[in-house]
Amino acid sequence: MLEQRVEMQTPAASAETPRPAATALTGRGRFLSASACRPVDHPPVWLMRQAGRVLPEYRALRQKYSFLELVQTPELAVEVTLQPVRRFGFDAAILFSDILVTAEGLGQKYHFDESSGLQMDFALRSAADIARLDATALPERLQYIPRALRLVKSALGEQTALIGFAGSPWTLATFMAEGGGAEHYTRALALFRKDRKTYFELAEKLTAAVIAHLQMQIQAGVDAVQIFDSHGGLLAPTEFQEASGRWMMEIISALHASHPACPVIVFSLGTHGNWDDLLATGANVLGIDWRFPLADARRLLPGGIGLQGNLAPKLLSEATPEAVGAETARLLEVMRGRNGYIFNLGHGVPPAARLENIAALVETVRGFK
Ligand code: CP3
């Protein structure tokens, strides 16, 4: 399938015409080529959390609908997914959804509002709570996701890539054990450290659920999937593999077996002591968070793996467009000539980001020669 997908590229250049594929690339072609470490005209760009509160058009919809209504109503999720693409012309769209839909699919519902934040109907407190989680109803409970994806896909056509996603089992466990957002995510850590057997039971269930969820998204037409391991950095480097890495590896093995052409991106936050474990997941692309120098990532990681990142998100809310442009250009220089680079932030867009800063970022990437 990947051959089909990248067909739009012309084959490698003759000496006189160094980059013939360049002008012909669509955003989707550029994103897929970079994901496969093939040459591109300039790196593709999309931003984690590109949809949402930063956009006035999103905030206008939120006046009328709750967060969950937006996520669960395909037509609305499509609109919110497309908003940042329309405004900034990103090379990839990411479905407007949340990592916690996997918990919902297992029977642990959640909601979000401004006053109470992220809350789940109950918290996982015991082995019995974990035993009650049931993956069999996941496809039925989450059917709004493939419905939204099919609609987004037909709106984007060949122009823009579409990314599906899920949380890593570890990151999902941290939220599910607390029963929502928390100041400190201590419960999953305690479970992992004190009752390894029960943690593994939970991780196995979450792994199966994430596989089902991501396969459903791939079948609905996404071009790539990203696993968010946003809480990987809560673990000691010596704990990472058992708590998080090995479960992502299992997920990726299953996806590569069922859908070998679909690239998998792993974004793990704050796990700079675990590059070997992250490589061992089998990810096609590794997200580099904003606290790790991109030049070091380039030096440390083998050429066959894509790298994605890693502008400091805070620059979008706190710096000027000139400073954002300058830092974007610096990162592009660091990665010059390295096939398989996808421009992104080193974590999500902060809600207070300035729109002119996002525009400066995108223009700088697009103008890179
Ligand atoms: O990237 C995108 O544009 C797609 C949408 C997306 C959301 N959540 C929408 C959202 C994605 C990819 C996510 C992933 C997600 N969700 C992660 C991993 C990425 C990361 O930031 O580390 C995590 C940890 C979550 C869990 C989650 N969902 C939290 C902690 C919160 C509340 C905190 C916050 O950011 O407000 C949410 C709610 C949420 N998910 C919002 C959005 C736009 C805010 C809803 C609103 O205010 O309307």
Protein architecture, described:
The structure is a single chain. The protein is an alpha/beta fold and 369 residues long. Helix content is 50%, strand content 12%. It contains 19 helices and 9 strands. It has helices spanning 2-5, 20-24, 27-35, 56-64, 67-72, 74-88, 101-105, 127-132, 138-141, 144-156, 169-178, 187-194, 196-219, 237-258, 275-280, 294-300, 314-318, 321-334, 355-366, and strands at 92-94, 110-113, 117-120, 161-167, 224-229, 264-268, 285-287, 306-311, 341-345. The strands form 2 sheets. Strands 1-4-5-6-7-8-9 form a 7-stranded parallel β-sheet. A two-stranded antiparallel sheet has the order 2-3. A hairpin with a 3-residue loop joins strand 2 and strand 3 (117-120). The structure holds coproporphyrinogen III. The site of coproporphyrinogen III has 21 residues, from loops.
